[in-house]
């Protein structure tokens, strides 16, 4: 599938959803799909673009997700929180399914947490190639298990077993009339191969600068937004400033607090809108160089000539820009931000009082399914008991605001802790979110390890397998265990940072 360049940025985010919402219901079209499967807030169907298939000739299927108002699912890189939708195929022998082709997403923000995803409706197309030895006249059934995360204020895992049955024909297939416009609209949101575009990136004192040179026929760019495909490279919540530059434009991107350096390449999707109203989504694969050809990185405090005084389109700015203080974070190798919080009995705990001890900070929300994965399996409790037994101080911190998911009064917290067999040194209450914001805590769980000197030696996820499935724990690499073992042995932490995963912290 190939993307194209039309519409305004605001229109493009809504047009596909509107078309999907008003199209003929997929399950009403014979031979397209089995009846829709539904979770609590999302309906899922597997649909075909064509009425039949030819032996050996590729065709397109699509996973259609229809979300209730206010709910969303996630892009291939979900951003600060969430999970990408996954398809696990059960295909006839000799069939091959390519990876999902992802329409470009939209940003969603909740306090300092920004994620990428879809609302209302999305079609995720997949190219399927059948075997050449199929016999015309016989039907074939293609099945897939779809897994997704649906979020509003809370997040819930969704799963559906789906299938579609199609006849095999010797003649070229006809498109399904009821879905032709839907697949066409989805193609417009797929990032195109950047024919005629050039990209370079360079690190600056404040982050990254992406230089873009569109084709001469493209016109004046007025709006731009970069969706990073790489986790923990850009600060998703920071505004992206578009400026004119020699031979093109520059987009200033703030880097994630614990970005792994040196950066070699910048990869993602750039969505731009021209003064003439055309929108284009193009793939970006930019080398990160010391000096961009024809453009010197702007010094810190330097002046950027913005396009019509616009930094971003209002839709992006409202979704993505947060106050600078909200983007504070605990940085590996730097002193951990000091704090004082009370536990469920009202006793005060200050990080500065723990100098000389190894400390784990665990952001927790017992109503989050990711936290449920690690507590329901006993994984988190085992870690707590194992390392507090070695003298480590383990502090569970809840930054959920009162009235939000995960907030409980102290007596309820104590009851939950007892029920789950939780064994931290203390459970601390951060209702105003001050400590969570100071650390840049984005997800539950989000883990930090502070060494006896008071420096952050690890920041990120609990392990390398982002899912809500307890069965994944056995094969996951536990980053927290590895960091503690190395730090307690006096060794440098090999994997000092990773992308956290889980529900967004429910700040006020």
Structural summary, described in words:
This protein has 508 residues and is α+β, with helices and mostly antiparallel strands. It contains eight helices and 27 strands. It has helices at residues 9-22, 177-188, 314-320, 369-376, 379-388, 410-420, 434-439, 479-488, and strands at 37-38, 42-48, 59-67, 72-79, 86-90, 96-97, 106-110, 113-119, 121-129, 139-151, 155-167, 198-204, 207-213, 221-228, 241-245, 248-253, 265-274, 279-289, 340-343, 348-350, 359-363, 393-398, 426-429, 443-444, 447-450, 456-460, 503-504. The chain has a seven-stranded mixed beta sheet, with no helix packed on it. Helix 1 packs antiparallel against helix 2. The radius of gyration is 24 Å and the shape is globular. It starts with 8 loop residues before the first helix and ends with a strand. Mean pLDDT is 88; it is low at 6-31 and 294-326.
Summarize the structure.
This protein has helices at residues 9-22, 177-188, 314-320, 369-376, 379-388, 410-420, 434-439, 479-488, and strands at 37-38, 42-48, 59-67, 72-79, 86-90, 96-97, 106-110, 113-119, 121-129, 139-151, 155-167, 198-204, 207-213, 221-228, 241-245, 248-253, 265-274, 279-289, 340-343, 348-350, 359-363, 393-398, 426-429, 443-444, 447-450, 456-460, 503-504. With 508 residues, it is α+β, with helices and mostly antiparallel strands.
């Amino acid at each position: 599938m190939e993307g194209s360049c039309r519409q305004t940025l605001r229109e493009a985010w809504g047009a596909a959803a509107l078309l999907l919402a008003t199209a003929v219901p997929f399950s009403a079209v014979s031979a397209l799909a089995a009846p829709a499967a539904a979770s609590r807030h999302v309906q899922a169907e597997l649909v075909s673009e064509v009425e039949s298939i030819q032996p050996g000739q590729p065709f397109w299927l699509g996973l259609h997700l229809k979300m209730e108002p206010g709910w969303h699912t996630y892009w291939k890189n979900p951003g600060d929180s969430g999970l990408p939708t996954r398809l696990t195929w059960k295909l006839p022998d000799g069939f091959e399914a390519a990876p999902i082709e992802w329409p470009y997403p939209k940003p969603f923000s909740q306090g300092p947490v920004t994620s990428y995803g879809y609302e209302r409706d999305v079609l995720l197309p997949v190219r399927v190639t059948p075997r050449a030895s199929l016999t015309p006249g016989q039907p074939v059934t293609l099945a897939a298990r779809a897994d997704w995360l649906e979020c509003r204020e809370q997040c819930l895992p969704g799963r559906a077993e789906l299938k579609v049955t199609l006849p095999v024909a010797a003649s070229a297939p006809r498109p399904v009339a009821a879905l032709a416009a839907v697949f066409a609209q989805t193609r417009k949101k797929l990032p195109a191969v950047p024919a005629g575009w050039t990209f370079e990136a360079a690190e600056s004192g404040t982050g990254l600068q992406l230089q873009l040179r569109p084709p001469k026929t493209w016109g004046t760019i007025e709006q731009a937004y970069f969706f990073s495909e790489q986790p923990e490279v850009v600060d998703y919540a920071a505004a992206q400033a578009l400026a004119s530059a020699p031979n093109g434009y520059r987009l200033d991107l703030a880097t994630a607090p614990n970005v792994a350096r040196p950066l070699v390449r910048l990869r993602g999707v750039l969505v731009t809108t021209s003064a003439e109203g055309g929108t284009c989504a193009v793939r970006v694969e930019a080398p990160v160089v010391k000096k961009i050809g024809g453009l010197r990185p702007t010094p810190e405090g330097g002046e950027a000539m913005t396009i019509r005084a616009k930094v971003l389109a209002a839709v992006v700015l409202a979704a993505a820009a947060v106050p600078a203080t909200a983007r504070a974070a605990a940085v590996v190798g730097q002193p951990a931000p000091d704090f004082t919080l009370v536990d469920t009995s009202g006793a005060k705990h200050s990080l500065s009082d723990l100098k000389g001890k190894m400390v784990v900070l665990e952001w927790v929300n017992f109503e989050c399914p990711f936290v449920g994965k690690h507590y329901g399996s006993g994984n988190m409790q085992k870690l707590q008991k194992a390392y507090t037994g070695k003298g480590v101080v383990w502090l569970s911190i809840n930054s959920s605001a009162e009235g939000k998911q995960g907030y409980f009064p102290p007596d309820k917290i104590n009851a939950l802790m007892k029920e789950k067999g939780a064994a931290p040194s203390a459970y601390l209450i951060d209702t105003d979110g001050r400590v969570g914001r100071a650390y840049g805590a984005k997800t539950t769980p989000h883990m930090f390890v502070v060494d006896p000197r008071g420096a952050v030696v690890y920041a990120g996820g609990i392990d390398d397998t982002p899912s809500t499935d307890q069965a994944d724990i056995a094969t996951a690499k536990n980053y927290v265990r590895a960091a503690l073992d190395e730090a307690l042995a006096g060794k440098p932490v090999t994997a000092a940072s990773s992308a956290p995963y889980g529900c967004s912290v429910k700040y006020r």
